Amino acid sequence: MGKAQGRQRSDADTRERLLRVAAELFAANGYHATGMKELEKATGLGRSSLYYQFSSKEEMLFEIVTRYLRELIDYGNDLMSRDMGAEERLRLLSRGVMRTIARDLPELTVCFREVHAIGESRRGELMDLHRRYEQVWTDVLEVGVRDGVFRTSSAVAVKALLGMHHYSYLWFRPDGPRSPEEVADAFVDLFLNGLLQRPLT
């Protein structure tokens, strides 16, 4: 590895460490309550080093919030491109979301809780990513309806699935008794089967 490549790798590692620490601080204390001084202390980096990586605290927040949306959109679109049954695709999407939440809980806590702190200059791009992410869930249900497996792909159904998964950041613990996959399967089972032992008459 040459000097330039080594420097790029070092910069990338520093950037990742900074984002991780920022996410942990934002999740624990809130975005607005966390200043550059707290980030300097937690990372051991000077102010100039922080600004070398990110132009502002909001840029850090935007990167934390959007990178997981992009990752999940790519994951969902990959599932849509593969030949599989509707239920399997829904389960895999659910498991992917729960694994991401479990793996990067501070980042996803910030992603779900601090989205309102993104300024107007970046709000449009963020909202577009949210729409694209929600559309992945809609597409999964619509294909299931088309194939005669699911009964509905309504906006209410999509919002219900999103709510079940996203609010798990409030209670899910990676070291808890249930794995992300088990929680995901429980969500899908509940969604597919409902609570009643017999259909409504």
Commentary on this structure:
One of its GO terms (molecular function) is DNA-binding transcription factor activity. By secondary structure, the chain is an all-alpha fold. The protein has nine helices and no strands. The protein has a domain of 137 residues: Orthogonal Bundle (Tetracycline Repressor, domain 2), CATH 1.10.357. Helix content is 73%, strand content 0%. Helix 5 crosses helix 6, helix 5 crosses helix 9 and helix 7 crosses helix 8. It is elongated and about 60 Å long.
Keywords:
about 75% helix; about 200 residues; mainly alpha; Tetracycline Repressor, domain 2; about 0% strand
Beta-strand proportion: under 5%
- What is the overall number of helices? 9
Superfamily (CATH H level) name of the domain at 57-193 = Tetracycline Repressor, domain 2
Q: What is the CATH topology of the domain at 57-193?
A: Tetracycline Repressor, domain 2
The shape, in one word, is: elongated
Percent helix among the residues? over 70%
CATH class of the domain at 57-193: Mainly Alpha
Average pLDDT, to the nearest integer? 90
Question: Based on helices, strands and strand pairing, what is the structural class?
Answer: mainly alpha
Q: Architecture of the domain at 57-193 in CATH? A: Orthogonal Bundle
- Succession of helices and strands: HHHHHHHHH
Major sheet summary line: none
- The tally of strands reads 0
Distance between the termini: 70 Å
Produce a short descriptive summary:
This protein is mainly α. 73% of the residues lie in helices and 0% in strands. It has a domain of 137 residues: Tetracycline Repressor, domain 2 (Orthogonal Bundle).
